[in-house]
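[stage:ingest] chain + small molecule (calcium ion)
[stage:ingest] validated
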Amino acid sequence: MTNIGDRLRRYHDTDPCESAPRPWIAIHGSGKPAAIRSATWFSAIIAVGTALMATTVLAQSPARAQSGDSPMWGGSPDRNMVSDETNIPYTWDAKTGQNIKWTAPLGSQTYGNPVIANGRVFVGSNNNGHFRPNITGDKGIILCFAEDTGKLLWQATHDKLPTGRVNDWPEQGICSSPSVEGNRLYYVSNRCELICADVEGFLDGENDGPFTDEKYHDQMDGDFVWVLDMIEELGSFPHNLATSSPVIGGDLVFVLTSNGVDEGHLNMPVPGAPAFIAVNKRTGKVVWERADPGVNTLHGQWSSPAYGLIGGVSQVVFPGGDGWCYSFEPKTGKLLWKFDLNPKDTVWSLGGRGTRNNIIATPVIYDDKVFLCVGQDPEHGEGPGHLYAIDATKRGDITETGRIWHLGGDDFHRSMSTVAIHDGLLFTADLSGFLYCLDVKTGKPHWKYDTYAAIWGSPYVVDGKVYLGDEEGQVTVLRASKTLTKLAVNELDDSVYTTPVAANGVLYVANRRMLYAIAPKMASEAVEKTPTESGK
Ligand SMILES: [Ca+2]
Ligand SMILES: [Ca+2]
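[stage:predict] done
[stage:export] tokens:
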């Protein structure tokens, strides 16, 4: 048991990637984060750049697949971590069954987020649940459950890469959250493949193609429609793990390839390999590719793209491994703008010793702006972070011209969290354990709340409340308002590295080992009658 500060000091003495797990890798059961926190939270908010625009036109995104579904990371292509669902419980008790609709076991380490579409729930994990008795050993898997009962329907299985931890870290499973459209789901496997699979698997009695050469092809296995091997076909060198969650716009599916540095962390083996790609969702053929970060890639590229209409123009927004955010014309890959999220005086050093950071969070498109922060592999420990509101109607290098507001220095720390924007308020969190409520137009803080635990996931706003899971296995619920009001802290007994998500009246929370479907329900009679320890 170590806390973040201890880990930070420990890994400063070694090569962190030699000794430490990767971002998606649990150091189970940390203590409280070490204090690097500022006592001057309200003192140095930097609101810079252009005057705030008075626009009230929100960026439009394609409608959700089915009313109430949440078919991709963030629920919609803009990636805003909010939901329109109502009547969502904010307390539950797994022991008594209070507000627990069902639970389903996962592997032993789960970092991918559940997505819910057309009666099914999909989530990535590792193979330590051994749900397919004949499939043993370390694998990356996608589990498909029935939305109404939690029954396991099928499992897609991906062997580990023979090159080992430099490309495919042991026991991490699949971290990519699928994107579901119609009868197809898209995700990135631990083998750095962009997969298009049949939502019905082989249960429909058909092996959908053109891909029909599945290694695992029993009734409960995954049925792949096409497979784009980004190592073999594009030359990508995923650093430690390929993790990107695809987004779909029109006929194209967009994803990062996770191309990164080698095991020694000093060289980029394939700087010319694409970092960002657009792929025809029907055929799996690459339509365009970009390698912008190239040799400037700091470490890996573990983030995910967003898609939306900004200032009347469709944009696909990619976070680069060089700490820049890039936006492209979706159909052509033409650069629209780029923004450096690291102040120019920051420096990159191995093992988290520097001040220059990576982008692990996902950009959120809202009100013609992009909201995005920087952070690092959590094993690099805490440090200063930066959060920006970017005017995405500008063009070219907009690092100066597009900066609407910035939160950083002592007031925001390294973060992997994607923001949630609702009713003029922006909620975000950082690895140091703080949940922040800011004015979305100015970046001015209304409040911050200390969970005293490392935050890997993102805040999620639903039904007037903000939910946030943490490494201690707690899900804190506060009122989504300018006034700080804590409503509940729910115990889930194992680290929550994912983000709560609501769909069709149900809240889904995955901790490392278990998926909980939470909906209004009295405590179960059967559970209540179970003898307690004290009653034995
Ligand atoms: Ca099929
Ligand atoms: Ca197939």
